[in-house]
Automatic annotation (TrEMBL):
<dbReference type="Pfam" id="PF00795">
    <property type="entry name" value="CN_hydrolase"/>
</dbReference>
<dbReference type="GO" id="GO:0016787">
    <property type="term" value="F:hydrolase activity"/>
</dbReference>
<comment type="similarity">
    <text>Belongs to the carbon-nitrogen hydrolase superfamily. NIT1/NIT2 family.</text>
</comment>
<keyword id="KW-0378">Hydrolase</keyword>
<dbReference type="InterPro" id="IPR003010">
    <property type="entry name" value="C-N_Hydrolase"/>
</dbReference>
<dbReference type="InterPro" id="IPR036526">
    <property type="entry name" value="C-N_Hydrolase_sf"/>
</dbReference>
<feature type="domain" description="CN hydrolase">
    <location>
        <begin position="1"/>
        <end position="85"/>
    </location>
</feature>
<protein>
    <submittedName>
        <fullName>Carbon-nitrogen hydrolase family protein</fullName>
    </submittedName>
</protein>
<feature type="region of interest" description="Disordered">
    <location>
        <begin position="1"/>
        <end position="22"/>
    </location>
</feature>
Length: 107
C-alpha cells in the first residue's frame, strides 16, 4: 500500500472476499490505511453463500482522511461515492506523512 501511495496512487481498490463478518477492527484498519497512505480505498466484498462459506459483504469506500464515505450492509447492493482527486492532494498537503517516509528502512 505504501509503495503504491508513494508512486502517485490516489485511489486503491481491494476485493478481499472475507467469509467472516468484518469486525470494527477490520473497518478501522481500512480507515487507518487510507489516512496513513492518503489514498481513497474502495473495499468491495462479496455477499451470499458458496458451499459452506457465507461471505460478509459490507463493502466500504473510505476517503484519504479515513472517513467512511459509503458503506453497504450484508446484502447485495450498489454503493456510490464521490471522491475527487483534489481531496487526495489536499490530504497530502495537510498531513505530509509520505514525506516522512524512510525508504532506506524498506527492503
Amino acid at each position: 500500500m505504501r509503495g503504491a501511495a508513494w508512486s502517485s496512487c490516489r485511489r486503491r481498490a481491494s476485493v478481499p472476499n472475507t467469509d467472516a463478518e468484518p469486525s470494527k477492527p477490520f473497518l478501522w484498519k481500512i480507515r487507518v490505511q487510507a489516512m496513513q497512505n492518503q489514498v481513497a480505498i474502495v473495499m468491495c466484498n462479496r455477499v451470499g453463500k458458496e458451499g459452506d462459506v457465507t461471505f460478509a459483504g459490507q463493502s466500504v469506500v473510505v476517503d484519504p482522511y479515513g472517513n467512511v464515505v459509503s458503506k453497504a450492509d450484508d446484502q447485495e447492493q450498489l454503493i456510490i461515492a464521490d471522491i475527487g482527486l483534489t481531496q487526495t492532494a489536499a490530504a497530502r498537503k495537510q498531513r505530509p506523512f509520505l514525506e516522512l517516509r524512510r525508504p532506506e528502512w524498506y527492503d
